[in-house]
Structure formats: structure tokens, C-alpha cells
Amino acid sequence: MPREIRLNAFEMNCVGHIQQGLWTHPRDQSTRYGELGYWVDYAKKLEKGLFDGMFFADVVGVYDVYGGSADAALRNAVQVPVNDPLMLIPAMAAATRHLGFGVTANLTYEQPFLFARRMSTLDHLTGGRIGWNIVTGYLDSAARAIGIDGQIAHDDRYDLADEYMSLVYKLWEGSWDDDAVRADRAGGVYADPSKVRAIHHHGKQYKVDAMHLSAPSPQRTPVLYQAGSSPRGCRFAATHAECVFVNGQKVEGVKEIVDTIRAQAVQHGRNAADIKVFMGATPIVGRTDTEAKEKFEDYRRYVSSEGALAHAAASLGIDFARYDIDEPIDTGKSQAIVSNVTAMTRAAGPQWTRRKLLEQMVLGSRQTPWVGSAERIADQMMTWSEATGIDGFNLSRTVVPECFEDIIDLVVPLLQERGAYKTSYGEGTYRKKLFGHDRLPHTHNAAQYRSGAK
């Protein structure tokens, strides 16, 4: 039997997300990002296609590395303006029944006590369909926005994140017993005080002496996503993540990352099956190969090279504007997304130039698009799944909504015919749909903080 493929729509509450410039295409509707109805219709469409989730990226700074200013990002709508993705979730959840929502939140800039309540609230309001993409940040502009001179060093951000996670686990898992809420009208007792406790966390970065303000939600801890592929990021994922997001590169490279994270998870006392891996992909689908190629050429006319370089400069921590078109680029000691630098070196070779980088970014991003008929795209998905051990794909938008309509109308039926895609949703929470249980398993690091845990 083929492996079941899971799909997320990879989105952001902004105009230009990954494929820079495509917002200018006459059929693209991403400039409607400020309309709630746009997102509600979007969620309904994805649920019709039995998507597992909508995965929201987010940043809390601007891309100001290229040319030393944010001008290129502003001109090209490169993830600015960007609105808060968490605000969209209740409306989309009210219009759907099964679709999960993975939301990026930067723990470096989120006060953990209040953030824990916000996520518990969303878990309640969605009936247990919320996930958290754990990020530590990589933009100096975000650090300056909250009064820090510059970004914390890459590995130090993960050390802070480990403590942050232990604190929110204590709040989500340990503050309220499962049976603390009695809702006893006759006796006049809503919650049993003996089953609710303050947690006491006195760490290097955080000090909290308080009970969690939210009663236990369906999942307690949200489904945990993480996207780091550096050695330190892999170690963090093996400890905390349930779903890992990796960038597509060569098959061998993706398989190595998948195998490494799962092997490290086993070393931490977890099961390899406790981690599902989603790979980023950008499919451009047609009924035939010719139709898909024509669509691709149409899209290419709207690509912004300046926007692509502005995005890449921030993600890689390198100001490409300082280099001539064929001048070798020094990657140096970037404190941005280390795994991006590694992946780009694999793709472009050790001696990058702006020309090589632009050759990689044929559709306005470093992610090479898949172009072909529905049959070809279905074949690629199944081949990648079998060859690398990934569980599914985070599908990056190109021209919306047609890019996802093509997947839903053309590719999904083929995958279903081949037994590689579900024909209906299972019941239950986001975690139950993915893993078969509502709560984190006892093998997870968070379990030690549960009431009564030994």
C-alpha cells in the first residue's frame, strides 16, 4: 500500500509570501488578505479538498538587509504589510469542522504566560484544531522593534527556546487536573481548588509563579510544528516537535534530515512515528504537461527579481546588493536561518553569485517549482514520500485561489484513486487526525510536567 500523503496550504497573512511578485498577476487575489471573508472562503475550499491544515508563516520584522533598507520589501510587498495570523483562526474554524490550523509564533518576543493562554483559548474555540509552529526569529529588525540591539546568536536562541518550552508545558500540562472542572450548578462549584495549582518556574530567562488561566483545552498542548534543519534545530525538533517542516532540495538531503531527526527523537525516548515531516513544494498543475508549462510561463512574467533578492537577503543574512552580478558571495557567519544557507550552498555550489541565485529563483523564490500534469505532480508527491520518508507537503501558494483549486480538482482525485490520500476526514482533534490521540504521548518531553507524573 502506498504511504498516505498529507497536505497543508502554506500561507501568510500578507500579500507577497514566498513567490515574490505573483501578487501582480491579474487573477491573484492575495491583495484581499485584509478581508475576513477571503480567509473564510479559503478555509472552506481547503476543507473541501480534505487538506490536513492551513500552515501560517509569520514574521515580526521587516526585510531590510537588501540594500540596507526595507525599500525593496515595501515596493514589492515582500511579507510586508503583514497582519497577525492568530486573529484569523476563530472565523475560519467557525466555517469549517475538520481543517487544522498551524500558526507561527515567535517565542523570543512572546511573553510565555500570556501566550500559553492565547493558544489554550484558540484550542478551545477550534475544538482542538490548533497547532503552533515554534520559531525563534532571525531578523535583526524584529529584535530592534522590541528594544534589543540585535538578534540573539543562532544556537543561543534555541537554548532560550528549550526553557520557554518547559515553562509553557508546565502551564498547559501541569496546572489543571483533567477533572478540575466540575461545573456543579447545584453545589455551586465550578472548579475544584484542590485540583488547580500554581506552577513555579525560576529559570535563566523566565520567572513565573502562577496558575494557568485557562481550563484544560481539548489538546492541552497544541500540535507542535518546528522548521529548523540545522544541527541545533534538529536537536530541538527531536526533543519537542511533532511535525517538522523541511525545505525541498535533493532527495538525499531531505532523507538525511528526516532520518536524523527521527533517530535523535528515538534517542530522547520517543518513537520515530511520533514525528511527521512536511516538505515545502510549489506545484504548478495543468490537465496536461503543455497546459502546466504554459501556466508556468504566464506566471513567470510577473516575478519580481528585486523582491526575490530582498526576501533571500533577509532569510540568508546576506546583503546581495553589495555584490556585482558575477562576484562571489561570502556567506560568512550568518545568524539568520542557518539551514537556508546550507540548502542554498547545496543548490548553487560553494561559490554563489547573484546570477546563480537568480537562476535558482525562477518563480520569485529559492524553491524550484514542480511543473506538470496532474499525473506528473501526483507521481512526484508519491516518489518523494517513498524515497525520503516524509509524510506530506506544505504547498506554497503561487496565484491564489487557482493554485489550490488545481490541486483539489486535479491532483487529489488521482492520489485518492491510488490509495495515497484520504477520502474523508477522521473525527477528533488535529492531533488525533495526525497521530491517533488527543494528548501528547507519555514519551514526549512535556509529559514529565503533568499532574502526578513521576
Structure in words:
Residues 27-390 form the Luciferase-like domain. This is N5,N10-methylene tetrahydromethanopterin reductase. Belongs to the NtaA/SnaA/DszA monooxygenase family. Keywords: Flavoprotein, FMN, Monooxygenase, Oxidoreductase. The chain is an alpha/beta fold. It has 15 helices and 14 strands. The chain has one domain: Luciferase-like domain (TIM Barrel, Alpha-Beta Barrel).
- Largest sheet at a glance? 8 strands, parallel, barrel
Number of helices: 15
Q: What order do the helices and strands follow?
A: EHEHHEHEHHEEEEEHEHEEHHHHEHEHH
Task: Say which CATH homologous superfamily is assigned.
Answer: Luciferase-like domain
Straight-line distance between termini: 40 Å
The backbone outline, from C-alpha atoms, is globular
Any idea what the radius of gyration is?
22 Å
Number of strands: 14
CATH level 3 topology:
TIM Barrel
Strand order of the largest sheet: 1-2-3-4-9-10-11-14
Helix content: 25-40%
Portion of residues in beta strands equals 5-15%
**Mean pLDDT figure:** 92
**CATH level-two architecture:** Alpha-Beta Barrel
Query: Quick one: CATH class?
Result: Alpha Beta
In the predicted model, the low-confidence regions spanning at least 5 consecutive residues are 333-339
Describe the secondary-structure layout.
Blueprint: E1 6-12, H1 36-48, E2 53-57, H2 71-76, H3 89-94, E3 100-106, H4 112-125, E4 130-135, H5 140-145, H6 154-174, E5 181-184, E6 189-191, E7 199-202, E8 207-210, E9 223-226, H7 231-240, E10 243-246, H8 251-267, E11 276-281, E12 283-286, H9 289-300, H10 305-316, H11 338-348, H12 354-360, E13 370-373, H13 374-388, E14 392-396, H14 402-417, H15 430-435
Parallel strand pairs: 1-2, 1-14, 2-3, 3-4, 4-9, 9-10, 10-11, 11-14, 12-13
Antiparallel strand pairs: 5-6, 7-8
Helix pairs in contact: 4-6, 6-7, 7-8, 13-14
